[in-house]
Amino acid sequence: MTSEITLIVNPTAGGGRGARAARSAASALRDAGFHVATVTGDGPEDALSRARTAVEEGTGALIAVGGDGMANLALQAVVGTGTPFGLVAAGTGNDFARALGMPLREPATAGRMIADALKSGRSRDVDLGRIGDRWFGAVLASGFDSRVNDRGNRMRAPLGRFKYDLAMVAELAAFKPLPYRITLDGGDVREVEATLVAVGNGPSYGGGMRICPGADLTDGLFDITVVGECSRATLLRVFPRVYRGTHVDHPVVTTLRAASVELVAEDVTGYADGEYVGPLPLTARCVPGAVRVVGP
């Protein structure tokens, strides 16, 4: 393979960790003998355009440096091309990096792991979710958690994750379960009252919340977690268990598996890898071996 590789960087990820992580990762890659070009872009659309240009021009690998948003952006450029994809976790959530087994906030270590994999030709093909022409690596979220995102995104202050904590408190006070229609693999229809529905290609979202703990990036299937109708008190009791993945044992939680899922509900939006996708209805399909990954 060519020794010319490209880092696509969100310099503001993790409160500025992205820029520092890019320097550490690039140094490790150069020490391993690679020529490294760094791409930032003037906003997401420009960064995606530059990443696609690098792939089209034959870069030996596209390495995302940042959080789940940057990973998601880079996936749009590399999916289906055969160009190896690597990830240096430097954001707040880093859930796709967790799913891939990459070290968190250790950019030099991640850079060395990627360099070793590229030099040895070691790679693996992993599944991605697809919604129309959009791809995602971790989780498609809808319901209570997407409404928290909606509210948090409308808030101008405070900054950072505390804004979403406040948004969660506000949504808890107002939230009621929603009628969903869930269609699995085009035929199995479930009509349910649900607090949230999460479609997992990977197991976690929100910085380590294992909402779909059984999700496997290589089985060609989504794990779908449905939190059914429940009181605010029950939701508050169940929620802390999400970090261990033990919430799936609670009676209000149902888990499903399918290669495709359509979600229909009124006044609900979907977020994939933490990025806004659009209002329901949405149909997600699991595409086996959609991207070639280098790393552990």
CATH class of the largest domain reads Mainly Beta
Instruction: List the domain count as a whole number.
Output: 2
Task: Count the E strands.
Answer: 15
Q: Describe the biggest sheet?
A: 11 strands, antiparallel
- Pick out the low-confidence regions: none
- Tell me the overall shape: globular
Note the run of SSEs as H and E: EHEHEHEHHEEEHHEEEHEEEEE
Radius of gyration using CA atoms only: 19 Å
- Give the name of the CATH architecture of the largest domain: Sandwich
Report the mean per-residue pLDDT as an integer: 90
Number of continuous helical runs: 8
N→C terminal distance: 19 Å
Structural class: alpha+beta
> Helical residue percent?
25-40%
For this structure, the CATH topology of the largest domain is Tumour Suppressor Smad4
**What percentage of amino acids are in beta strands?**
25-35%
Organism: Streptomyces gancidicus BKS 13-15
Cofactor: Mg(2+)
Protein name: DAGKc domain-containing protein
Family: Belongs to the diacylglycerol/lipid kinase family.
What does this structure look like?
This protein is globular. The longest helix is centred in the first third of the chain and has 19 residues, at 13-31. The two termini are 19 Å apart. It is α+β, with helices and mostly antiparallel strands. The chain contains 8 helices and 15 strands. It folds into 2 domains: 4-122, Rossmann fold (3-Layer(aba) Sandwich); 136-289, Sandwich (Tumour Suppressor Smad4).
